[in-house]
Amino acid sequence: MDKNGEASTLDLLLTVLARVRKIWKDELSVYPYLKARDLTILDWVYHSKSPITMQDLATHLHVSPAAVTQMVANYEKRGLLQKVPSQIDHRMNTLQLHPELVKRIEGQRQLLKKQLENFEAFTDHEFDLNKLLSKLAEFFEQEDEKTDPRP
């Protein structure tokens, strides 16, 4: 705090960083076992414009179909991917993200969009670090109040 009782830029920055760290830690605790390769695969499945088969994944990763079968079974067990019968050839399965995972991703996108909208209120000459950090800290406090289970 400064002489006027206002939070310093450093205090505000540390508050915001602590909150962001907590959010990331909470999110990672749900899927602590994901590695970079897992995230790359899930991202590829999520953003694919066409259905992805097990063979497509094996080709993409340069691994055997047996390796993909084990990998996908593991992802299914964790609730990350699901196999869906192909609409073109019912002998094949396509891969999709599990609906719960898609729901979480979309929720995070909406939250990020909401956070970014808070910055639109600033014009170039108003883009002051203290104001920005105060706004972020205020937003995080409001979010904590919404999710706090205590009465």
Distance between the termini: 30 Å
- Which outline best applies? elongated
Chain-averaged pLDDT:
79
Number of strand elements: 3
Oligomeric status of the shown chains? single chain
Domain HTH marR-type: 32-127
GO biological process, one term: response to stress
GO molecular function, one term: DNA-binding transcription factor activity
InterPro entries: HTH_MarR-typ, MarR/SlyA-like, WH-like_DNA-bd_sf, WH_DNA-bd_sf
List keywords for this structure.
HTH_MarR-typ; DNA-binding transcription factor activity; 151 residues; 3-stranded antiparallel beta sheet; Arc Repressor Mutant, subunit A; mainly alpha; 8% strand; WH-like_DNA-bd_sf; HTH marR-type domain-containing protein; elongated
In short:
The protein is mainly alpha-helical and 151 residues long.
Description:
Among the domains are: 1-30; 36-101, Orthogonal Bundle (Arc Repressor Mutant, subunit A), CATH 1.10.10. Helix content is 63%, strand content 8%. It has six helices and three strands, in the order H-H-E-H-H-E-E-H-H. A hairpin with a 7-residue loop joins strand 2 and strand 3. It is elongated, with a radius of gyration of 21 Å.
